[in-house]
From TrEMBL:
Classification via Pfam families: MlaD
Superkingdom: Bacteria
Mce/MlaD domain ranges (all copies): 60-133
Entry keyword set: Membrane, Transmembrane, Transmembrane helix
Protein name (record): Mammalian cell entry related domain protein
Organism: Amycolatopsis methanolica 239
TM spans (from-to): 20-42
Gly residues composition bias: residue spans: 406-420
UniProt-annotated stretches for the region Disordered: 399-420
């Protein structure tokens, strides 16, 4: 069976089997999409086909190349534009490193070119920034090398820390650990801490100024001692006395250091006391301001008031002088009224029991005030049993003569007076 016959037979099968043509078309579309995606991915990986030629290959020598991994496609840039990549990296016998780079066709690298190894992220994603140079430099030959004097590299943080001594590294590590712990609650506590630090630094300012003055004085002392030593020359005796004096001076300075340490140790407590005192003064100021405002307002209204009082006193003077004879004549009258005042007091004391019944009497009379008014208005006589409309019984008044209260209170447990 020939190939044409196989294709024809397959085509007939696709046409005759229900759904097979649709599946075949879907499979072809998927294969086409897969090939397109594969081609796009390979193009982004900057894969150069074997038949492509004209790429510029050269090398550069660096002191060190930390973080360079050629398999990660480390870039080569000119003026920030990616034009090539790092092909390989290898160490040299002199301790340096050699990077082999390739550029796209059309670029020329000269003998005065400069290269800088940098990173585009904190995680050492390295790239080479290339200045290709130009005349009067000459083009580099194929596989030429840029010398180490024309290259620079990024400095790693570990290299900076390695220059420190062991105590400094330990202190820095402790500082980082404490900073991590301290910054955990930074949004809530850091502002107050910074304000307290600012106050502490301001409190330390006089001490620092004194230390600076002392440093200048010590510098002048050392300079003077140097001059004295130079002037002394080879005079061993004078030099020995000078050294002894210097030792005594340094001992005094050492004692002053102890006193200074004690003073610095007292500063935190003094700062706390000063902070509390300033807070109290602030509260006092807040209370004093309204008082001063009130005094200011009173000071504007008090002089006119005093002026008016002065005028009133001036006008009251003649009145007091005129009333003086009246007061003199009234003294005998007041003296004659004193016995009467005693009798009135006795009368009021005797009326006290009767006044106790007045609320009850008032409570009983008030409901009959309307009827009593009608009785008064419609009756010509309080004791008559007839009016303009004829005879009619109006009231029955009962008086209990054996009740000393006049019917206002209970006499023998019976009802209180009354009327119908």
């Amino acid at each position: 069976m020939t190939a044409v016959a196989r294709i024809r037979r397959t085509w007939e099968r696709v046409r005759n089997v229900p759904g097979l043509g649709r599946d075949a078309v879907a499979l072809a579309v998927l294969v086409a999409l897969g090939l397109a995606c594969t081609g796009y991915i390979f193009s982004q990986y900057d894969i150069k086909p074997p038949w492509q030629s004209g790429r510029v290959v050269f090398a550069a020598e660096f002191e060190k190349t930390p973080g360079v991994r050629p398999e990660s496609r480390n870039e080569v840039r000119i003026a920030g534009v990616t034009v090539g990549k790092i092909e390989s990296a290898e160490p040299l016998p002199n301790g340096n490193a050699r990077l082999v780079m390739s550029l796209d066709p059309g670029h020329t690298v000269y003998s005065n070119a400069k290269a800088v190894l940098s990173t585009k992220a904190p995680l050492n994603v390295m790239f080479v920034s290339l200045d290709p140079g130009g005349p009067p430099g000459t083009p580099l030959p194929a596989n030429g090398t840029i010398p180490v004097s024309q290259t620079k590299r990024v400095i790693q943080p570990s290299e900076l820390l390695s220059k420190l001594d062991e105590r400094t590294r330990d202190a820095l590590q402790t500082l980082l650990d404490e900073a991590d712990t301290a910054l955990a609650n930074a949004p809530a506590q850091l502002p107050d801490g910074l304000r307290a630090t600012d106050a502490t630094v301001n409190a330390f300012r006089p001490v620092v100024e004194q230390l600076q003055t002392r440093r200048g004085t010590i510098s002048k002392l050392v300079t003077s001692l140097s001059q004295i030593s130079t002037a002394a020359g080879h005079d061993d005796g004078r030099l020995a006395d000078l050294v002894a004096s210097l030792q005594q001076t340094l001992s005094v300075l050492s004692q002053r250091d102890t006193e200074l340490s004690g003073t610095l140790g007292q500063i935190p407590g003094f700062s706390d006391d000063l902070t509390h005192a300033m807070g109290s003064v602030r509260d006092l100021t807040g209370e004093l301001n309204p008082t001063l405002d009130g005094l200011r307002s009173a000071s504007t209204t008090l002089p006119p008031a005093l002026s008016r009082v002065t005028g009133m006193v001036d006008r009251a003077g003649p009145l007091v002088a005129a009333a003086k004879p009246v007061v003199s004549e009234a003294k005998p009258v007041v003296a004659d009224l004193r016995p009467l005042a005693g009798d009135v007091h006795t009368a009021f004391r005797q009326l006290a029991p009767v006044t106790g019944y007045l609320p009850s009497a008032t409570a009983r009379i008030v409901p009959w005030m309307g009827d009593l008014a009608a009785f008064v208005y419609q009756t010509s006589s309080a004791f008559s049993l007839a009016d303009a409309n004829g005879g009619l019984g109006r009231a029955n008044l009962t008086l209990s003569l054996d009740n000393p209260t006049g019917g206002l209170g209970p006499a023998d447990g019976g009802p209180v007076g009354g009327g119908k």
